[in-house]
Amino acid sequence: MTVKKTSVLVLDCAEPEGLAHFYADLLGAEVRAGAGLDMVEVVGGPGVHLAIRRDLGHAPPSWPRPEDSQQAHLRIQVAAEDLDEAEREAVSLGARPLDVDVEDGPRDARLFSDPAGHSFTLAATGPLRT
After folding, report:
1. pLDDT digits (tens, 9 = 90+) for 50-100
2. Contact at 8 Å (CB) between 12 and 58?
3. Coil, strand or helix: which one is 118?
4. Which of these, 39, 30, 123, lies nearest to 74 by C-alpha position?
5. Rounded CA gap, 120 and 91, in Å?
6. Quick check: 50 and 96 in contact, CB under 8 A?
7. Which three-class secondary structure state does DSSP give residue 12?
8. Buried b (16+ CB within 10 A) or exposed e, 104-123
9. Which of 64, 130, 95 is nearest to 87 (CA)?
């Protein structure tokens, strides 16, 4: 018999409360106390569960890192017709665009960093309209 398990992505940063509120606002979720004083959680609908852990020595990841393999990042899926609005919302909450290369046509995935420097992607779940 397999023991029931749940996985949670944990992001480290110096100020977990602020980062938790960024993701809660972006994902339409709520911030809850986590396990211990240095952890808060972001919990929402199905598939939305993050933990943010205080690390006073945290150094934001750099992007891109051609000498290393890609770091783990959060992929946030939205309906294709909502991708532009989701991008505006993320930026208004403090996200910073990382993929500024101009490509031909609309992009179905857009890379950002959160206020603590972690990368995340907003990605369309269906075809983009042109």
Report:
1. 999 898 888 777 666 655 555 667 888 888 888 899 999 999 999 999 876
2. yes
3. coil
4. 123
5. 12
6. no
7. strand
8. eeebeebbbbbbbbbbbebb
9. 95
d(CA 95, CA 22): 9
3-state secondary structure 46-87: CCCEEEEEECCCCCCCCCCCCCCCCCCCEEEEECHHHHHHHH
As beta bridge partners, residue 9 has 50
Q: Is 94 exposed, middle or buried (0-12, 13-18, 19+ CB in 10 A)?
A: middle
Peptide bond into 64 cis (omega under 30): yes
Q: What is the DSSP letter of 5?
A: -
Asked whether the beta carbons of 116 and 11 are under 8 A apart, the reply is yes
Taking every pair of Cα atoms in the chain, the longest distance, rounded to a whole number of angstroms, is: 51
- Residue 3, amino acid: V
pTM for this prediction: 0.76
Q: How many CB atoms lie within 10 A of CB 10?
A: 12
